[in-house]
Fold this sequence. Notes:
alpha/beta, 5 strands, Rossmann fold, hydrolase, 10 helices, HAD family hydrolase
Amino acid sequence: MKAVVFDLDDTLFDHTTSATNAIQAWVPALGATYSADLIPQWFEIERRNFDGWLAGRLTHQGQRRGRLLEFLPLIGRPVPGTDDELDEVFAGYLEFYRQSWAAFPDAEPALEVARSNGWRIGVLTNGSTPQQNAKLAAIGLAGFIDVVSTSESLGFSKPAVEAYHLTCEALGVEPADTLMIGDNFELDVVAARAAGLTAHHLDRAAGVTLAQLVRSTG
């Protein structure tokens, strides 16, 4: 191996916990009652609207507005009538979300192992370039990363083969010399292997850590 490419959300960056903490704080701030069943509903709404952005049906801000159109009625709050008002409401969620940004404890050790191997290090993420770079900076990992590839900057999102090949090209390596690691089996393993990369699935529920996956290929 000459390089390793990591997924970001729920691989290096703990998106699920950050978003969960944000919902727990944001819903009461809106004057509504929080309940645990709102969490899976929020993530399903997030997935559906985010997929709409990746498919080109929505703008990035539009998918945020779409989330509110579905979520606010669930908590008994009125839906604002203008885009500006929707954006103001979503800004409240974003503030709580940012306050909870954190790396997984195994993220920095894995990056240190990869660096000690002499590997180039990339991130490939289906997300907004400014936000994903801001996450890496806020959680203290930006200095380890040589290349950050986002669906927004590439013009392709996982599982398109171009997303993986363009990331390898930016790292200056061939796909055959590149390891991909991520929590999403279809996007980070199946599709990466189809693009010619070696790929490992990060299954934290089974006790697997990022550093173990990097060492196993070093």
